[in-house]
């Protein structure tokens, strides 16, 4: 890896080089947001001690980037660090990210159980979809979970989804489509063992055509349908 494009604290795209990651790994410092995101994108395990420290970083973006880096690396040993940070966290959005991250680190079944439970916090349920991003490599169970979640969002078959703001509802649909259209997700979906979930996904994608979604989301829907045809 010579360089990777990620987002920084101001949500601007920047290039991070392998040399910058090596330098960061040699220091016992809390990481800036763009370095934490680069660590996630490249699964730079050497930076895990820094990433755990960054869970207590000053900014919301820093702390969320650290949680997502741990999730991208699927580092179960960091669960206790996230829990400690969660116990000290005052920002509700970050708390939701931490909680959702811990659930997914415990396994897809844990995340899916919480998502479908009547007692679960709707904000955490929503975040369980939002934490799926381009840094995390999918497993077959992730695909099953997201296809099931897509149908729940489309049919609004849970009360908390019916109460969502339209913009948040559309954002979560976009999160699901963006993750499923990634090359690794498509590879899994095209396997013979996922034939039934692929057929079901086609039905869900067809259902999305009747909704007013962002152009990029609809583009992703069309692309995913073509890739799976």
Short description:
The protein is mainly α and 229 residues long. It has helices at residues 18-25, 33-42, 48-54, 60-73, 79-88, 92-105, 108-116, 122-130, 140-155, 159-162, 166-180, 183-189, 195-208, 215-228, and strands spanning 3-7, 13-17.
Comma- or semicolon-separated keywords:
14 helices, 229 residues, mainly alpha, 2 domains, 2 strands, two-stranded antiparallel sheet
Percentage of residues in DSSP E strands: under 5%
Order of helices and strands: EEHHHHHHHHHHHHHH
Q: Total domains, how many?
A: 2
Structural class: mainly alpha
Q: What is the general shape?
A: globular
* Helical residue percent band: 55-70%
Tell me the number of helical segments per DSSP (H or I, 4 or more residues long). 14
Query: Average pLDDT value?
Result: 94
Cα separation of the termini: 33 Å
Order of strands side by side in the largest beta sheet?
A: 1-2
Low-pLDDT stretches: none
How large, in whole angstroms, is the Cα Rg? 18 Å
For the secondary structure, the number of strands is: 2
Q: Largest sheet at a glance?
A: 2 strands, antiparallel
